[in-house]
Amino acid sequence: MQKGISDDVPMPAPRRKQFRRLYIGEWIARLGRTPREVSKDAGIGESYLSLIISGEKNNPSALVLLGISETLGLTVNDLYKPPPAPEAVQAAGQLTPSQMATLGDLLASLKTQRRKQ
């Protein structure tokens, strides 16, 4: 018998692709924008943006994410994080969307540290 692939060795199960959740719809609402104006400004179709927001399209291209993030004044990475709580946004006053995302990260970090203590 030849050395090589054996009939009795099972094939590994196919891996399902894992996609990180996008928070685009939450960011749009928090920033007081509408999907219609964001899709127009980002140069994508409103129905396509709706599919991304609903999670039906869970792997948009980097170019699409870049267009959305630039339209919202965020980084692409910010789209993968939930926006800060409305109370934090009200208290923040005149922060830019990117500063708002950083503030959200800071508040989440503080909350985590408090739980550990």
Describe the fold and architecture.
By secondary structure, the chain is an all-alpha fold. It has one domain: 434 Repressor (Amino-terminal Domain) (Orthogonal Bundle). It is 53% helix and 0% strand. The termini are far apart. The mean pLDDT is 86.
Count of spatially separate domains: 1
Please report the distance between the alpha carbons of the first and last residues: 64 Å
Ranges with pLDDT <50 over ≥5 residues?
A: none
Tell me the quaternary state: single chain
Number of helices: 6
| Count of DSSP strands | 0
Radius of gyration: 20 Å
| SSE succession | HHHHHH
- Mean pLDDT metric: 86
What's the name of the CATH homologous superfamily? lambda repressor-like DNA-binding domains
CATH class: Mainly Alpha
Largest sheet: none
Return the CATH topology: 434 Repressor (Amino-terminal Domain)
CATH architectural name:
Orthogonal Bundle
| Fraction in helix | 40-55%
Secondary-structure topology with pairs:
Blueprint: H1 24-30, H2 35-42, H3 46-54, H4 62-72, H5 86-92, H6 97-116
Helix pairs in contact: 2-3, 2-4
Task: Write a compact overview of the structure shown.
By secondary structure, the protein is mainly α.
